[in-house]
């Protein structure tokens, strides 16, 4: 007899056009316990969204923080996305995901998200145009996670 499969919640969030407080409120309201930052470069011109500032801000809300640089989009992919060439960005990102570093980071992210209600964080407001949707799809393969875009 098989144990029923438990589906865990997994959120995604982009901070484009949002303040830190708006993002923190959305995370808190959704019951997120862990932010998984999937930016290649965890620096931001937007106040409060650089790695150390964001980690401190989520910690104040009792939320954990992990950064997986290898799950970020390489520079050519980010440039394609900025120019609206989403299919090109996806192709570049699929190549990135095939690297040993990204495969390891994906396994670590899957393990972390299976232990705590996690949210994948990146800049892009529209999850459909962002690589975090691809990460969420990879993590949820096999039905382990139910994905919600915040």
Structural summary, described in words:
The protein is α/β, with parallel strands linked by helices and 150 residues long. The protein has a single domain (8-143), classed as Protein-Tyrosine Phosphatase, Chain A, CATH 3.90.190. It has 6 helices and 5 strands. The chain has a 5-stranded parallel beta sheet, sandwiched between helices. The longest helix has 16 residues, at 100-115. The radius of gyration is 15 Å and the shape is globular. The model has no long low-confidence stretch (mean pLDDT 92).
Structure keywords:
5-stranded parallel β-sheet, 150 residues, alpha/beta, Protein-Tyrosine Phosphatase, Chain A
Summarize the entry for a quick read.
The chain is of the alpha/beta class and 150 residues long. 44% of the residues lie in helices and 17% in strands. The chain has a 5-stranded parallel β-sheet, with helices on both faces.
How many separate domains make up the residues?
A: 1
Proportion of beta-strand residues: 15-25%
Low-confidence stretches: none
Q: Count the beta strands.
A: 5
Summarize the SSE layout with pairings.
Blueprint: E1 8-14, H1 20-29, E2 34-37, H2 51-60, E3 64-67, H3 75-82, H4 86-97, H5 100-115, E4 118-122, H6 131-140, E5 145-149
Parallel strand pairs: 1-4, 1-5, 2-3, 2-4
């Amino acid at each position: 007899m098989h144990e029923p499969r438990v589906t865990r919640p997994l959120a995604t969030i982009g901070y484009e056009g949002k303040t830190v407080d708006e993002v923190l409120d959305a995370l808190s309201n959704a019951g997120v316990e862990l932010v998984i930052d999937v930016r290649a470069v965890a620096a931001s011109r937007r106040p409060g969204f650089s790695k150390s500032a964001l980690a401190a801000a989520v910690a104040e809300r009792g939320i954990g923080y992990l950064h997986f640089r290898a799950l970020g989009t390489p520079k050519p992919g980010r440039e394609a996305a900025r120019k609206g060439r989403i299919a090109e960005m996806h192709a570049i990102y699929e190549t990135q995901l095939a690297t040993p570093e990204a495969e390891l980071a994906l396994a670590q992210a899957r393990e972390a998200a299976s232990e705590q209600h996690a949210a994948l964080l990146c800049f892009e407001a529209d999850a459909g145009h962002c690589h975090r949707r691809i990460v969420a799809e990879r993590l949820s393969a096999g039905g382990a996670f139910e994905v919600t875009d915040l």
